[in-house]
Fold:
Amino acid sequence: MTNTLFQIALTRIPKVGPVTAKNLISYCGSPEAVFRQRKAALLKIPGVGEEIASRVLHARKIFSEAEQILTQCSRQQVGIRFYLDAGFPRRLHHIPDSPLVLYVKGSPDLNHPRILAVVGTRSPTATGREMAEKLISDLSKYDVLIVSGLAYGIDIAAHQYCLRSGVPTIGILGSGLGRIYPYAHRHVAAKMIEENGGLVTEFEYAAGPDRENFPMRNRLIAGLSDGVIIVESATKGGSMITANMANDYNKDVFAVPGRPVDPKSRGCNALIRENRAHLAEDGTDIARLLRWKEPDEMKAIQRKIFVELDEEEKLIAEMVKAHKEPEIDFLLHLSKMQMSKLATVLLSLEFKGVIKSLPGKKYRYLHQ
Structure:
């Protein structure tokens, strides 16, 4: 059996969500090892009781279902991203209940340096649509990727504008890739796959748009993004759920203000009034708060920084830039430096604002 089959099989075990599945993998070492464990060993894992252990041990039906899903994905050219894969969205690693597996259609860059979500009401005003387009237009010069939910209203307006203007865009589905919802947007979805983005879901290919799927879809929209922009929203609904989730994940939330008497602006106004969102009147507001710089400005900063670095600092900076958040042991192996020397260079680069140290002795390049 392939590793992917075991990965999918884990998602099929009843009452085993992403948190428990990751816990199982952490204790056992791999998805395959989970299914090789004895019952006594499984019962020692926190969160795994008699019922879950029994389901893992009697997984014949689960593997049959997983094989069908894998075959279907192969036929339909659907990519599968496991949460430990390099192509899995790094931003989701900080979210405990992020999916174990994502199904992807097209070639979206899920680790694009700058990702923003644009969501809002399903029945926007003409002004709301224009505002969504203006914000995306303003932000396009910052090399941004736009995420939304392919829903009626602001979501689909954002995707359509991205397609017209060449901005990469990803649709996050509350259904499987074989059940595009809403069906009326299947042609837009096809263009997204072909031209400058794609579709992403955590639901298997044939899964329908069940009601309970959409809060899960909203958490992905929030989790994948650096920030969430709300354009027209009532005080309740999917956009407000996404905003609340983004706040829980320590993401920046932006809301377009509206007239107090307009029901479609009350949610946005409430977010701003309660300090749960930044006021956003144009894309410059958003870029400034995120401390984004325009490409030409970034290149000028990079040139200046690299002039100020010595040869060893330039070498390590390029390594950190080329490899996504490398660990210090990896840099040690690649650079052939002594540990004491490498530590000195890394500290110098941190002081100069070129890199940032992360938990787990990893490093991030700050000027890409």
In short: The mean pLDDT is 90.
